[in-house]
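[audit] Reproducing an earlier prediction to check determinism. Same input, same settings, fresh worker. If the tokens differ from the archived copy the diff job will pick it up downstream; this log only records the rerun itself.
[audit] input (304 residues):
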Amino acid sequence: MARRKWCLVLLPCACLTTLVHSLGAITLDYSTSAKALAEVGWYDPWFGPIAEPVEDSDKAAGGRSYADAYWDEIQFAGRLGINIAASATAEPNLIVLTTDLSGSFRSEAGTPLFTYFYQQAQGTVDATVYVDEFPPGTPCSLRYDVNWPQDTWTGEYLWRFEAVSYVEQVECGYDPNGPYGLRHDQITVFAGEPVRIFLGTAGGGLNEIGVGSTLGVGRIQLDVRLTVSRQITDLNTDGFVNFEDFAVFARQWRRSDPNSAEAASHAAADFDGTQTVDIQDLKWIPYYWLLSPQPALALGEARQ
């Protein structure tokens, strides 16, 4: 995929820890990291320009990394701070990844004595997901929904979500060029095969102090919810999408009575939930047609 990647120059250190959740339907192997930096500059009559940075980084504890950096000197009557958190939780058929960024600056002096303030932070969740509920090789759908229920950050920020399986890659986010990708979509995965997941958010900014100046007064909270289900076009649940599934589908073609004797088959073939099995449903069949029950082997042989 030719989509641009983003990065923000951050602290040189990195703290990672790996945890594993195995809950029947999903195995989640992940690491989280959080870094924060805050800096202020002021002009001292005796020593001239002075800069004082405060930085922090943290590794996961119970699935959550949290770091904060604050600079606070009562003699200058001001406060600058930034927080970043990254976490991951897993339940049967559901994974929730979260990054949470907040920051603030407050000058209590009538005429600010600082010359500038600067904030920078990054939180990431790097994970590998395995679907355990179905037989190995069963085509499944991994649905992702990205939300930011709180977005009051006034500094610069960017974020990215990425999911990579053996047959597909999806990516969405926000960078200096604006939003890109689909925040609500799905990716084809195969039971037993690793799926790489990444969620990262970063924020920061530099501002000269002036009367009423602010930067990063607020919060960004990014949540990604991942749910797994068997691939909808595998209508006979044998791990393949082939003529047998098409036969089940064809029997429901153009029917619009969900209360018929074959209500269950009708509902299964009605992929888009319109209560009519039509051309909009048919387009999903070729997309997953003849997917191999052993995708890793198939792809490996194709490279040779």
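[audit] rerun output stored. Observation attached for the diff report: The chain has a mean pLDDT of 78.
[audit] end
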